[in-house]
Amino acid sequence: MGREATWEALIAGRSGIGPITKFDASAFPTRFAGEVRGLDPESFLDRREAKHMDPFVQYALYAADEAVRHAGLVIDREVTSDTGRPAEGSYPADRVGVYVGAGLGGVTHIEKTHALLLERGPSRISPYFVPQIIVNIAPGLISIRTGAKGPNLSMVSACSSGAHSIGEAARTIERGDADAMIAGGTEATVTGLGIGGFSAMRALSTRNDAPERASRPFDRDRDGFVLGEGAGILVLEAEETARARGARIIGQLCGYGLSADAFHMTSPPPEGEGAQRCMRMALRDAARWDVRPEDVGYINAHGTSTRQGDIAETMAIKAVFGAHAHRLAVSSTKSMTGHLLGAAGGVEAAFCLLALERGVLPPTINYETPDPECDLDYVPNVARPAQVQVALSNSFGFGGTNATLLFRRP
Fold it and tell me: Would you state the pLDDT for residue 87?
């Protein structure tokens, strides 16, 4: 559980996919997912608090705690920028914000409360119900927990939510509205409604006999994505203030792009046209830091293991990078984590930063049979030592909403 255990499993190529244990999935076409296992909410939350929080909020708080601790971020709760000077090495409370998004929010408590309503009537609905399910309760409770009084909101943009949150957090710092931001995504949709809804769309893999081999991005025999859950949260700071407080800097977010497909609710446009524009915008943004397209050495692909999605992203990468596309390493960590929806962009941004810091590229596991329409270097099955200087992370969501983040070594 946590950053180091997740990274260790990732580099070892170990799948986190298995049979669903959170509910009886025996009647569902897909009976497996990437569940969060072994997390005891009462190890970091008061029992009463934990009882009234949906899992997507619990995951967000756990991830935010770890991010803040690792960053050594100290917020002076008693001081704002217009009331005094904070203690040395800390930020005034109003100079730290929280942007944490999700795609769907509190699905677990929506299901439970609806069942309770039908069984026992409206008088049994909890007064906590609405705060349990709204997406912005995640950054709200992180701010209460940390004392961060700066900008606070949620991006709700399907599978791009986490990446949009990080990109917009960086722009908030650049505008001067904050010195530091806690940003990312969270999701907990391994529920009857979550699995059932995506199954009804025929979007999920049905390899029930081999769950750990079901997520196979870019492989010819892929048959759909695998639903996952969790949270990925980063601490972003203005370089000047980070260095002044002696922060350990592991990477620089130097490019951010976002676009709309304006094409279809769930399918990508031909040749990934929206993804192309998104990546190009991120590269234009990074040009002010003298980052060129040929400097990119690794792409953490959106790579969901769907037929059209993987082809469209491959075509988009080739269109944007030209001949350099075949010199790039491109992997999909969703092959091991499943698709975390609104949390994916946050988790995969963290994977990019760790790859840059540690000189190892995570693999695409279950890559067994090449697809002629997906012909890039997908780091098949085994992690690869590589001193990459620039990494790019793609996130594309239903509704045709796209986000790209570009990082470089500090």
Answer: 87
